[in-house]
């Protein structure tokens, strides 16, 4: 695919320059915005493929920007923020952000997060052209119509909750899902607490990640939630 258009929303000039220089050296196209209002106008008028968003803008909180963009667009949003508390990450991800990078950051890590988002874009595009009833990700295959799961061509028997968890992660492959989001989607409320969710997730992982040498499929974001890695993605990129 052609290089995507990236919208960089950052009011700190040195950091904005670092990000845009990094994008330019990699051949990416980009637009910039220094305020929340300008970011919304840019997003509406230029329809970027990816948004890199700082939360601490002078006129609007970044979480509110995420909510506004999510009301009409599903573009990947990568938060780059000095806010490092789990609560800040959870609020941004629950609002609809796809990833969260804490300042200070390395340009290599930023580029890795962009590659993850690009794989999601490609996956979503390919999925529209394929039978939506079958999901494949490396050696993992889910037949939604039949309710069956295979790993390396071996059928895996899951409990109903394990299957629902796997399907939820698969339908959001590459995106971090918070604990609260998963609890709401699977049980409809927070009746089950986070420790119970961890137990279900542990049993699921034992079945689809049978040996330490086998590639990891589900990535834990400590204190935040879980993400299904896409085939070929480095499990160390968090």
TrEMBL record:
Keywords: DNA-binding, Phosphoprotein, Transcription, Transcription regulation, Two-component regulatory system. InterPro entries: CheY-like_superfamily (IPR011006), OmpR/PhoB-type_DNA-bd (IPR001867), Sig_transdc_resp-reg_receiver (IPR001789), WalR-like (IPR039420), WH-like_DNA-bd_sf (IPR036388). It comes from the Bacteria. PROSITE patterns: OMPR_PHOB, RESPONSE_REGULATORY. SMART domains: REC, Trans_reg_C. Residues 132-230 bind DNA. CDD domains: REC_OmpR_KdpE-like, trans_reg_C. This is KDP operon transcriptional regulatory protein KdpE. It comes from Paenibacillus auburnensis. The lineage of its organism: Bacteria, Bacillati, Bacillota, Bacilli, Bacillales. The gene is kdpE.
């Amino acid at each position: 695919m052609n290089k995507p258009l990236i919208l960089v929303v950052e009011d700190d000039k040195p950091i904005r320059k670092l990000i845009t220089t990094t994008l330019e050296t990699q051949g990416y196209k980009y637009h910039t915005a220094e305020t929340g209002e300008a970011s919304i106008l840019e997003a509406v008028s230029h329809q970027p493929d990816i948004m890199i968003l700082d939360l601490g803008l002078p006129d609007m909180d970044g979480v509110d920007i995420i909510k506004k963009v999510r009301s009409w667009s599903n573009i990947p949003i990568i938060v780059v923020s000095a806010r490092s508390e789990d609560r800040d990450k959870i609020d941004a991800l629950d609002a609809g952000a796809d990833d969260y990078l804490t300042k200070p950051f390395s340009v290599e890590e930023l580029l890795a997060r962009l590659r993850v988002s690009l794989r999601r874009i490609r996956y979503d595009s390919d999925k529209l052209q394929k039978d939506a009833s079958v999901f494949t990700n490396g050696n993992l295959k889910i037949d939604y119509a039949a309710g069956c799961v295979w790993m390396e061509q071996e059928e895996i028997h899951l409990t109903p909750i394990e299957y629902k968890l796997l399907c939820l992660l698969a339908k959001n492959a590459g995106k971090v899902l918070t604990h609260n989001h998963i609890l709401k989607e699977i049980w409809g409320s927070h009746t089950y607490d986070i420790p119970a969710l961890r137990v279900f997730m542990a049993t699921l992982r034992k079945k689809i990640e049978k040996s330490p040498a086998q590639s990891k499929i589900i990535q834990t974001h400590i204190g935040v939630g879980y993400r299904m890695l896409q085939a070929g993605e480095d499990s160390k990129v968090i």
